[in-house]
């Protein structure tokens, strides 16, 4: 039985989608230099039939021809040689602009009755022993590749080191292995038996969590399966990163709510950056999905269902909306507290102003010898006192008086409009305004009427 391993690892750098949309060639050469011996998988464009490619853009499904932002920055092969394990194998390398990388390699042929139940305790040891040297060799090589990216690619414009901590997945390390079983027969693990099945022509593909089974496969179906699994893995990583960051922000808001405007602005910038990044990465991924073949899309959709990506993606939007709503409520609470403090300051300043008018009244009322001064000083002091008292009364009671007057006017207008109209009947409701209720007992019979009529 043949087994193809699709290994997913997370890059240590983030690519700015806007820079890649403008020009992605600036990062290609530095990125290739991190993979010694890299050979491109295929040319940029097939020009064997020049007339067709000159006049038809989407003559075949390829996101690199029509997508505005390139998803796969690199797609080729490298020769993996490891002195410690003695391995010498060709590995397909694919690097995505969504900060994920993939290594695809074929394991040595294994017997058909090999134990594949990795999800059960104490089982699957033979398969683990078969994968062990490849795990060690590929793990060391992935670490070297990612260290080179930090030195060579991270200083470029539009590239930054990926955020670490906050519960994020580690970078520069293999995240998981997914194994494609080619024509496994009847001996398939339970993970595949309960998986999601799709059909690629004559090939039957069943996707599980750890394994994918291909029955009656050919080389083209195998490539479509590998590409579909890589797309599903990218989608999983996009949703997982957004979910982890959203959960981290929720915990931070819960444990340390903003206490001042600086904290509010900082958390607002973080939530805005999170939303912008999640939406932009989702848009790039969705654009690349529109230009793939139906076979790859079928595998990708089956993996989404088998891995629970579809349901998580639907709830992620609600979770991010809840995060923004909680933040807005806390920001409103801080704003209300600030407004309350401002109102107290205004009341204090108003009180001081009123006191100043009292002193002004006293100054006009008295002379230099603390006795009533000559005219017109007493008249001016009395006018000032009256104006102050009237202003205070207006400030204190005007709003309440206006509300009461408006309420009385509305009531009077409503009574005047209803006075000349009869109330509408209310069906099946007993009372003076509705129809008469149905009698609870039969009406009495007239005298002389018998039972037989």
Question: What would you note in describing this structure?
Answer:
The chain has 453 residues and is of the alpha+beta class. Among the domains are: 2-41 and 59-225, no CATH class; 346-408. The chain is built from eleven helices and eleven strands. It has helices at 17-22, 25-33, 50-55, 63-66, 125-152, 190-193, 219-255, 261-289, 294-307, 309-365, 377-418, and strands at residues 2-10, 13-15, 39-40, 72-82, 87-96, 100-106, 159-161, 174-182, 196-200, 203-207, 211-215. The chain has a nine-stranded mixed beta sheet, with helices on both faces. Strands 2-7 form a two-stranded antiparallel sheet. Strand 10 (203-207) and strand 11 form a beta hairpin. The N and C termini lie far apart (95 Å). 23% of the residues are buried. Mean pLDDT is 77; it is low at 44-52, 426-443 and 449-453.
Short descriptors:
11 helices, two-stranded antiparallel sheet, alpha+beta, single chain, 11 strands, 15% strand
């Amino acid at each position: 039985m043949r087994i193809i391993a699709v290994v997913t690892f997370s890059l240590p750098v983030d690519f700015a989608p806007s820079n890649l949309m403008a020009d992605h060639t600036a990062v290609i050469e530095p990125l290739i230099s991190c993979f010694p011996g890299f050979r491109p998988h295929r040319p940029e464009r097939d020009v064997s039939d020049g007339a067709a490619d000159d006049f038809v853009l989407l003559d075949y499904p390829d996101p690199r021809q029509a997508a505005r932002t390139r998803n796969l920055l690199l797609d080729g092969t490298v020769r993996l040689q490891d002195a410690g394990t003695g391995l010498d194998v060709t590995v397909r390398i694919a690097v995505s602009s969504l900060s994920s990388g993939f290594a695809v390699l074929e394991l040595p042929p294994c017997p058909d009755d090999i134990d594949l139940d990795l999800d059960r305790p104490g089982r699957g040891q033979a398969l683990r022993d078969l994968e062990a040297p490849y795990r060690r060799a590929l793990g060391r090589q992935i670490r070297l590749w990612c260290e080179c990216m930090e030195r060579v690619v991270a200083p470029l414009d539009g590239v930054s080191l990926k955020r670490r901590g906050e519960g994020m997945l580690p970078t520069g390390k293999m995240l998981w292995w997914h194994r494609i079983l080619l024509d496994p027969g009847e001996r398939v693990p339970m993970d595949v038996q309960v998986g999601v099945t799709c059909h690629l022509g004559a090939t039957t593909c069943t996707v599980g969590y750890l394994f994918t089974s291909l029955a009656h496969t050919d080389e083209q179906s195998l490539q479509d399966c590998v590409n579909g699994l890589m797309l599903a893995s990218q989608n999983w990583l996009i949703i997982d990163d957004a979910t982890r960051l959203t959960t981290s922000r929720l915990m931070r808001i819960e444990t340390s709510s903003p206490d001042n405007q600086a904290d509010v602005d900082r958390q607002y910038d973080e939530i805005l950056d999170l939303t912008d990044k999640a939406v932009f990465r989702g848009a790039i991924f969705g654009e690349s999905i529109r230009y793939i073949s139906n076979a790859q899309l079928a595998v990708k959709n089956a993996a989404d269902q088998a891995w629970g990506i579809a349901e998580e993606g639907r709830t992620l939007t609600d979770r991010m909306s809840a995060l923004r709503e909680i933040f807005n409520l806390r920001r409103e609470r801080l704003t209300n507290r600030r407004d309350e403090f401002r109102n107290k300051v205004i009341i204090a300043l108003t009180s001081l102003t009123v006191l100043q008018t009292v002193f002004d009244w006293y100054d006009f009322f008295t002379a230099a010898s603390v006795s009533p001064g000559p005219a017109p000083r007493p008249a001016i002091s009395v006018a000032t006192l009256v104006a102050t008292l009237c202003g205070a009364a207006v400030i204190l009671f005007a709003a309440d008086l206006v509300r009461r007057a408006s309420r009385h006017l509305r009531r009077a207008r409503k009574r005047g409009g209803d006075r000349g109209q009869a109330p509408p009947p209310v069906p099946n409701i007993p009372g003076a305004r509705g129809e008469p209720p149905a009698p609870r007992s039969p009406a009495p019979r007239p005298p002389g009427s018998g039972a037989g009529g």
